[in-house]
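input
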Amino acid sequence: MSVYILGGHQTDFAQNYSREGRSIFNLLEDGVNGALDAASLDPTDVEVAHVGNFVGELFTGQGMLGGFLGHVHPALAGIPASRHEGACASGSLAMLAAMADIEAGRYDCACVIGMEYMRNVPGKIAGDHLGAAVWVGEEATEATFVWPAMFSNLAEEYHVRHGLNHDHLKEIAKINFGNAQKNPYAQTRKWTLTDQHFANDDELNPVVEGWMRRQDCSQITDGAAVLFLASETKAKSYASKHGTPLESLAKVKGWGHTTAPMLMDTKLKSSQQSPYLLPWTRKAITDAYARAGINGPDQLDAIETHDCFTINEYIAIEHFGITPPGEAWKAVEDGRIASTGSIPVNPSGGLMGIGHPVGATGVRMALDAAKQVTGNAGDYQVGGARNVGTFNVGGSGTTNCSFVIGT
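output
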């Protein structure tokens, strides 16, 4: 059964809501109202809502986020709403739950909200809050910055198995920050970064943990991304109302979802006999390929992947099948992942350039994929895009979600 995407909206990830005196409710409100306007939908069209959010309680003390919907618009009062948590993949879990509702025939139009309010606390405290996605007390216990340390460990393991040159990670960062300059919603679109900001410069690009320097890391961000999923029946009536062919709407062609053991050490020990460093990541992606009826990245026109750290995108290049394991450097060096390459990766700017409000990221990726395949990505449009793959991860490769979105 097809699940269609009727449209959606991303808030401006450069906004600092607490500095503006605005709350987590305002963030959700901006996202939902912006999406209703962008998709030309009435609140009465929405039958169910799913919210992806990781740690609203830690940053703001606020839970029960679905209860905000009735305050956004009276017509949204009374609809069923659920919240979903899978660390940085929370938004993708909300999307999967909304798809299940539609595929089961329970509802014809679902609102999917991904959101995180994070800039109201100092960076170190924000990092500690996000550390809830490791096995607390069992790993990263000596780290000053939990996630840079965890992904530095992943980089070190990759280096042991295959060899790793930090220059290739620098190039990934340059590409993503550069792509973000074209994205009107990107947190870093007005930043000025020189080559020295990507160099081994301890003043402009200091080491955060191990392999990870400042420009190897994604941002602390306030943001919401909202999209509307619909059954074929609803999509047909929507297309007819707006005078557009059904075939012009984006749809979810395939999906994959795996959950690996929480401890990174367990993951890495389990992958010793696999060619892939994170085989559960590989399975989520290949499951999405299989459900979409495609064989691999040669049938994708672009990819939106989870570059919380440069090493995560580097590894994703291999797990998408762009190169064999151990050879991601080739795709960096030959330019195929650049915005003008044969398989652009993160033409939007990715988490590094756009920003990473953790609960929003999976929904934002899907929204960007839908924009690409409908020709609505503006200055960062990939010419002729018809199929876009996504990969969104929570924890150290723990919650893995992948989609293929196309027309």
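quick obs: The chain has a mean pLDDT of 97.
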